[in-house]
Amino acid sequence: MFVILLICAMGALGIEALSDLSDRTKSDLARADGITIDALAVFGDLERPPVVFLHDLHTNALEEKSKDCMTCHLSENGRLSTRFKRLKDAGKQEVMDIYHANCIECHTEISAAKEKSGPVVCGECHRKKPTILSSRVPMGFDKSLHYRHSRALKKQCERCHHEYDQKSKKLFYAKYKEGTCRYCHKKESEDLISERRISMRLASHLSCIGCHRKTMAENMFAGPISCSGCHDLEQQQEIEKIDPVPRMRMKQPDFVLIKAGGKESSGARMNRVPFSHKSHEGYSDTCRGCHHKDLKSCLDCHTLSGSKEGNNVKLLQAMHELDSERSCLGCHEIKQRQERCVGCHGFISNRRKQGEPYCMKCHMAPTQERTGVLTQTGERELARMVPEIWWAIFGARQVADIPKKVVIKKLVDRYEPVEFPHRKVFRALEKKIDGDKLAAYFHLEEGTLCQGCHHHTPAAKKPPRCGFCHGKPFDEKDLFQPGLKGAYHRQCIGCHDKMGIEKPVSVDCTGCHAEKKQ
Amino acid sequence: MAISRRKFLGWLTATGLSSAFGKTAHAGTTKHFEGHPDSLGVLYDNTKCIGCRTCEAACNRVNDLPPPDRPFDDLSVLDKKRRTDAKKYMIINKYDHIRNPKGPLHARIGCNHCLEPACASSCFVRAYTKTKEGAVTYDSSVCVGCRYCMIACPFNIPTFEYDSAFTPRIRKCTMCYDTRLVKGELPGCVEECPTESFTFGRREDLFKIAHERIRRYPRRYLDHIYGENEMGGTSWLYLSGVAFKKIGMREDLGVTPAPALTASALASVPMVVGTWPLLLMGIYAVSKRKEKIATEEKEQALADTIAQAKAEADLKISEAWQKAEKEKEKAVETAVRKALEEAAETENEESS
Amino acid sequence: MSQEATTANRSFITPFNIIASIIVLIGLFLTVRRFSGGLGAVTNLSDNNAWGIWIGFDLLTGVALAAGGYVTAAAVYIFGMKKYHSAVRPAVLTGFLGYALVVLALHYDVGRPWRLPYPFVVQQGTTSVLFEVAACVALYLTVLFLEFSPAALEWLGLKRARNLAVKFTLVLVVFGIILSTLHQSSLGALFLIAPSKLHPLWYSSFIPIYFFVSSIIAGLSMVIFESTLSYRFFSSKMDETHLKEKDDIALGFGKAAAYVIAGYIAIQIMGLGADNDWHLLGSLYGLWYLVELFGFFGVSCLLYAIGAREKNLKLIRWTAAWTVLGVIMNRFNVSLIAFNWQLPSSDRYFPSWMEIGISVFLVTLGLIAFRFIVTRMPILYEHPDYRDAHRAKGGS
Fold first, then answer.
1. Smallest CA–CA distance from B270 into chain C, residue
2. Site from C333, C337, C346, C362 to mutate, A interface, most A CB atoms within 10 angstroms
3. What CATH number should be reported for the domain holding residue A433?
4. Which end is more exposed in chain A, N or C (fewer Cβ atoms within 10 Å of the end residue's Cβ)?
């Protein structure tokens, strides 16, 4: 009967359940050399999907036939154009014809010679759903690579670094002003009035690969010219790393006094901050980490009250913004996210207002009012001396008297009291800050290390017990404070999870407290 | 006012239809139930949950549920996704590999104690009650077992004791209302959770807590409190480290409370009851009238025909009579004439 | 095993009787199993799929197909189309038996059937569409019973009671139409509360209207279908009037159905537009929806129209069967196939053989009852004592 058919239809449709096409990864088809050809996008909406072109595949194939880059790239002013068989994008039809004619012709030739060739049919290049996953990783130019280049080129910085003269519309070299390419070359090519700044991608490929090719032509060791040579993760990891990198000589100061600059210098209220530029150079992989716009001093743009050059970011924000990657405090916060710090520091929100007691940790050099106006050399001397004085006076770490074991029996119900190896844990934490100057500096005072667990209380030799603040949960008068049981478990388990501590297992209750025999 | 019957009926139909089949009953109302004042709720924060199943064990114990197939400290149970059933009011599901780099995230599945529950709205014996404390409770002493509440619940929570022949009940989380809440105690899961992943309190306060957590740790949380508006708002709220649909919670339920979905259909009932009799009796009256008129016309036609036939017959008869009269006269005349002529003849014969 | 078939005593051993007996025996066995073991012992229902074919088929489809009663009564008594008069009693009987079986099936499906009166006498859940359905179905069953009672009373020879019952006809018909409108549409309205579970092509705020209009279509078609079957099996019971009028009934109802189906398709399409669901038509469920709407309803509309114009009774009768299938399909789609469409296939529902067995059992009971009544009571013929009563009748 029809009714039975209908019931079967239910079964069939149920089984036909909308197939889930997501989450299908084809890791075996991941390549680093995929280039999306959407050259016609400048002329309007694309009629067909853009073509994914595998560059290394083609360069390797051509190399086997002893053909080089000139097969596809035209030369202009001694440099190869990155465009395919053309120097300019003349018009939609012309560009399209160039691609179609050349690609399809070459493929046809090769397949006529009975060799493996590429597609000739429209849909095989213009695929709706790409079959190749990109495994390209961005390539960075860190200090080690920079040093190797600088050494190989015998410190001829002008080979890469240039600036642009608006008036003469020419590139020129400015010594001691060599900044990162990214100060001018951004993500997209810009056509700022007559500046025609090309994108970082274009600039780096033109510059780097151009130079590497020239060097290789002279039979010298050079960097990669293939896509995967830079952009493949494995090959990236094979790039030789120099460690430690000798310090770059750019006439930069060793010690600096961070203060309000220029006209505002007399109006500053806070003590000035001595800053060891020399040490901090070693903490970042690139100058751009702090000198995010150019190599000038922070104070030139970030004034006390904010200025247009500094995007109205006041000096305070520039130095203290906790949620930033380039402010002083922001960078320190990021350092606290390492596994050995995060057990305690993970609980501290970076949306907090940093407390006043900590200001003096950096603001230790007396104001201009007290020292009088100093020369630049004088200021730098002051910046060098003040921390040394401080260390001399306060530098010795006081050893706190930590109890060996703390028995937590306040909430005993189904489990025995917890025998907490307090001293062992404390020593472990001490070991974790060993060797780290930042941690050592901020954890010098007695009781600061304790504040990881004994929080919301001043650093002290004998901090309050957890049960002195945490009591019954869900107190209407203190909405944000967990009860004692929650506090213990969140703190302990939270720290262990964040620091990747495998024993005790957080879901195994008996790992910390034995079950009570009923 | 002169109005044709047809027009009148047309208007009546239009009124009836348009009022019976209106789209929403919200036109003209601004009612929006935001919960009883000071009602309670629970905030579940899955960034604190470690998946230890202590809450499940507590729920089982407090509600006197039958022992589970596998013990509560067997965490391999979490390797499969489960749903609530007649023996489990609440379950935790584990989702691995959805948050880099650290650890799995969990989801709590159980009754959300909606502000305007679909189950309560759909129950035709009012077996569900939204208490003023916020919990949605179930009364098995009136339940007929129709399971419409299971159809209605958008979260698929109520479960049915299919194996019970004579006393099948719906089973679901009650926020430990009868066993704990009315005594001023905490629900079992809330009390037992070691990391206080469940925060209990007034619903308004839970929002403050949740928003403050999001404010303090924006990278840790998704900026959305599930249950704030979903299905008109629920008393059980959720914070999560990843998108909710990744942990098996539907994001496409909308903000309309369930009762509002059937409000217009129910509102049309009195309209139909009121207008249908008019409509039907009107049609009936019209059809009866048509019949009567048809009968009358038929009779009239019959009468006319008869009258006409009679008239023709009468005419014929009178004509015939007249003709007969005339002929009689003529005959009489002829006879008289003849008689006279004969008399004259006889006279003539006698005189000669 | 008597082979002697006298004119007065037909043999009990007929193919229908054998099969029916087997089904009834199995049905009784399953009934015992259901009530001693609970729903889980007999059905494939689960926590995700709370309603199965006992609701989808026995309730929803049963109510839709029993709609012939009110439609025919409306046509004859309200619209005054006297030439369909002989269709009233069979339609009312189908309706009455249909609803009786629906209520009987409900006793199987519900967890505690002895509590079915609770919504009326203990606690009223007036916010629930189901409450309204229950109230209307209960009242309508009563109405149908009263509408059917003259036939039974005539059979029993209770003249005074019969005459009294007949006086209420018009009131009952009006009441019946109101109740039918309410519960036919409310059965659809039951699903309004679950938009997240019903596929958007079937979910619409107009579901109540769709269900109501399709119940009219089902009623019209069922009357034609049932009259075809009655003629095939019970023609000896049909009197002159019946035989004379039945072709007119098929033609008239077929023509009416063509119009109503056309309207139904129009409002379905308008509903699609209102919810902007066009893009869903390109999916598998969309295809299924189109099969239901155009393959069944659309084709029926066309064939009814053709049949009515060319006075092709055979075409109309086959189309009636096709339309009934379409309505069944619609009820199945809304309650079972497009419902819970988002669940993975491992969580979807398929009825157990025992559920199907009970449904078949109930339908068989209905057929047996129908046969009993039709062969004894004045349904397909007029009782000699009341032959002219109908002529003078027609309401107050």
1. C182
2. C337
3. 3.90.10.10
4. C
Q: Are residues A76 and A191 in the same domain?
A: no
pLDDT in tens, A34-56: 898 988 888 888 889 999 999 99
Q: Give the span between the Cα atoms of C254 and C258, in whole angstroms.
A: 6
For the stretch A176-185, contacts whose Cβ atoms lie closer than 8 Å and that sit 24 or more positions apart, written own/partner, are A176/A250, A176/A251, A177/A295, A178/A250, A179/A287, A179/A291, A179/A294, A179/A295, A180/A286, A180/A287, A180/A288, A181/A207, A182/A288, A183/A288, A183/A293, A183/A294
Reduced to 3 states (helix: H, G, I; strand: E, B; else coil), residue A358 is helix
**A375 shares a domain with A464:** no
Please say if the pLDDT value at position C124 is more than 80.
Answer: yes
User: By CB neighbour count within 10 A (0-12 exposed, 13-18 middle, 19+ buried), where does A199 fall?
Assistant: middle
Whether the Cβ atoms of residue A143 and residue A286 lie closer than 8 Å to each other: yes
Query: What tokens were used for C358?
Result: 């009970």
Nearest to B103 among A490, A497, A509 (CB): A497
User: Could you report the predicted ipTM of this complex, rounded to two decimals?
Assistant: 0.91
A22: left (phi over 0), alpha (psi -120 to 50) or beta: beta
CA of residue B176 relative to chain centroid, distance: 32
pLDDT recorded at residue C177: 95
Nearest chain A residue to C357 by CA distance is A4
The reported pTM is 0.84
Say what the pLDDT of residue A5 is: 65
CATH architecture of C16-34+49-376: Up-down Bundle (1.20)
Q: What is the residue range of A442's domain? A: 406-511
Question: Within 10 Å of residue A382's Cβ, how many Cβ atoms?
Answer: 17
B136-138 and B159-160 beta bridge pairing: unpaired
C119 at B interface, C-beta within 8 A: yes
Give how far Cα A107 sits from Cα of A118, A237, B136, C196, Å.
Answer: 5, 34, 71, 53
Q: In the β-sheet with B40-45, what is the strand arrangement from edge to edge?
A: B198-202, B40-45, B236-239
Looking at the structure of chain B, the number of domains it has is: 1
Identify whether the C-beta of residue B176 lies closer than 8 Å to the C-beta of residue B62. yes
| Mean pLDDT score of chain C | 92
Whether residue C189 and residue B262 make contact (CB cut-off 8 A), yes or no, is: yes
pLDDT higher than 90, residue A355: no
Angle at A224 between CA A222 and CA A226, to 5 degrees: 145
Q: Which among B158, B127, B149, B168 has a CA at the least distance from the CA of C114?
A: B168
Q: For residues A429 and A423, what is the distance between their CA atoms, to the nearest angstrom?
A: 10
Mean pLDDT of chain A: 86
d(C-alpha A77, C-alpha A248), whole Å: 33
Which residue, chain included where needed, has tokens 């929100």? A349
Kindly give the pairing relationship between strand A406-408 and strand A170-172: unpaired
Query: In whole numbers, what is the pLDDT of chain B averaged over residues?
Result: 89
Question: CA torsion sign, C33 to C34 to C35 to C39?
Answer: positive
C59 touches chain B (CB under 8 A): no
**Nearest CA distance, A2 vs chain C (angstrom):** 7
**Model pLDDT, residue A395:** 73
pLDDT tens-place string over residues C180-196:
999 999 999 999 999 99
C224 near C253, Cβ under 8 Å? yes
